Automatic annotation (TrEMBL), chains A, B:
Transmembrane segments: none annotated. The lineage of its organism: Bacteria, Pseudomonadati, Pseudomonadota, Alphaproteobacteria, Hyphomicrobiales. Belongs to the ornithine cyclodeaminase/mu-crystallin family. Gene3D superfamilies: NAD(P)-binding Rossmann-like Domain, ornithine cyclodeaminase, domain 1. Pfam families: OCD_Mu_crystall (PF02423). This is Ornithine cyclodeaminase.
Length: 361, 361
């Protein structure tokens, strides 16, 4: 027992910082979205550089006819993090997000959560940071023009990420739905990026050094055919990210050097599901660590087969945890029971009832 | 786009009900702890009765030298639930809880969370409900006296659960630390239970029809030896709940009919880890469903080898979700991004920044 005895206010131990959607937007505004993506990329790179210290588990899925809910846990031996994320393609029809998420970072030494945060916006930002970071190693030097095929919710973040990290100045946008491209152009109007809306994928990739595919249909589609892809480009394939969902013709893969986050996962979820299980790929962490080469020639086609990996979320959670003291954009949640005497959990319940009041929620 | 266009207030879709520790205590007070445990037991029984409709996954652990963090997901095909729980035996030394938890219930058809709640208190209550429910099938008829060996945080809840569901009137309490027994007796003073503090385990079990073992040490201990256990008793073994942690001498197990939640898990985590992998056990759901017998004779020793299972947490989450509209003891968290146009996530971020304000957290 200690000085807190018989106190009804939870101590600091009981509180977990919580970042709501509104607070996440305020955190982005506090440092600016490009700095935010740059910061995320730094944390992601840091964690990829210590790749071998992570416990890399496959995602744990719960399937329904309409979609999937996944838990993505990982740990570096000191800190534990997980993301909850859903993927429900038909949600849009009902005015819901197709992908939403939240995450938790915890101290593995005590088991206590350190952070609870929305991750719908954060996932969009970390996905862009992951793509742009990879492109700093894989895109041709001096790349300024990026084709963006698929102009949905993720496309804005990709454009801003590639502006911040790669120096892209021009976006050539294509979507089956011209309204989606107009939306993208409108949102990027004040960003400093020049956006050209294109009438076909072929028109979009004209002159582009980088091709980003980020379409949403949950099926094997062929957004790019082989004859559309010339030598020297970098393909940032973001949309193919679950079994049965791909965007590129197989022949493009066969002409490309393929870079991945975690091969065991990409072979199931990425473009790579079209190729034999032993097809050679390079892991990005090895490129960042200088163990393997990124782009080696100006004629090479490089392909980042992005599916998203738990360590990127872990890095994003770390970034937010470190940002919060600077911005103050969070509230404290009374999530953890904190009795005066840890063995006296019921005593806490009992005293709360007798007093007819408890601590603030 | 719809009527919400350009609105900055999240719609109802964006909010997830959150039950803090304080609100959980208020929810317990609102209906009374015995009714609360009875309600939990009803929901647990309901879910055990549809056992085969659940996706039963093993827990997903992250280990550290100090303890473990586990994610426990399950789904019935319509609803998804998971619990985050830690077990850190040395936390008490630092004034922290050894076990804390929180949980989430979600709609599998949309992936959207329906409830986010503390589960430290809720887990203590559902563990008691699980034990007491099992005892209604396994304890000798007319049992009134229960020995409780180990008088830590879980013991109060066990006593109240057995009063509510089994009709126990007398508790015989023993702990290595007499202060723990005094604490238990003090907390139960107004409950209607008679509590006798005993000086040895042998004294505690005198005349008891039910023996509850609920000690906390993470080691293979022998709280009960074979000669202490007479015919006809029901043993409710709660403390042995992870690899390397057991409470009963192996010979007791060999004389008992053993009942378990989920054999695959109990064989690793429960008292059962002392026996060969093919030792016969009965699954509780089969007893509740009338497929297997519970207690069949007055001389039989029955043993519930309790380790805790995800479906109990799922049932507890359902119980809280259904209770909240009646008590109102929750707040709404702005956890889900809810742009006017689901494809326009960045537009929401952008408008929030331009307006210089966002929705309430």
């Amino acid at each position: 027992m200690n000085a807190k005895i018989a106190s009804l206010s939870p101590s600091e131990l009981a509180y977990v910082p919580f970042v709501s959607v509104d607070h996440m937007m305020k955190n982005v505004a506090a440092i600016g979205i490009e700095n935010f993506i740059r910061g995320l990329a730094d944390y992601i790179k840091d964690d990829f550089l210590r790749w071998e210290s992570f416990d890399k588990k496959p995602r744990i899925p719960a399937h329904a006819p309409q979609g999937v809910i996944e838990l993505m846990p990982t740990s570096d031996g000191k800190t534990f993090g997980f993301k909850y994320v859903n993927g429900h393609p038909d949600n849009r029809r009902d005015g819901l997000q197709t992908v939403t998420g939240f995450g938790v970072l915890s101290d593995l030494a005590t088991g206590y959560p350190l952070l609870f945060t929305e991750m719908t916006i954060l996932t969009a930002l970390r996905t862009a940071a992951t793509s742009a970071l990879a492109a700093t190693y894989l895109a041709p030097k001096g790349a300024r023009i990026m084709a963006v095929i698929g102009n949905g919710a993720q496309s804005d973040f990709q454009c801003l990420g590639f502006k911040a990290l790669v120096g892209i100045t021009d976006i050539r946008a294509y979507d089956l739905d011209p309204k989606a491209s107009q939306r993208l152009a409108r949102n990027l109007a004040g960003s400093g990026l020049n956006v050209t809306i294109c009438k076909s994928p072929e028109a979009a990739i004209e002159g582009a050094q980088i091709i980003t595919t980020v379409t949403a249909d949950k099926k094997n589609a062929t957004i790019l055919t082989d004859n559309m892809v010339g030598p020297g480009v970098h393909i940032n394939a973001v949309g193919g990210d679950c079994p049965g969902k791909t965007e590129l013709h197989k022949d493009i893969l066969l002409r490309s050097d393929i870079f991945v986050e975690f091969p065991e996962q990409t072979r199931i979820e990425g473009e790579l599901q079209q190729l034999p299980a032993d097809h050679e790929v390079t892991e990005l962490w090895e490129v960042y660590a200088g163990k393997k080469a990124g782009r080696t020639s100006e004629y090479q086609i490089t392909l980042f087969d992005s599916v998203g990996f738990a360590i990127e979320d872990f890095a994003a959670l770390r970034f937010i945890r470190d940002l919060l003291p600077k911005t103050g954009n969070f509230i404290k949640l009374d999530l953890l029971a904190d009795p005066d005497d840890p063995r006296d959990l019921y005593g806490m319940v009992l005293r709360s009832q007798k007093s007819g009041k408890g601590a603030a929620a």
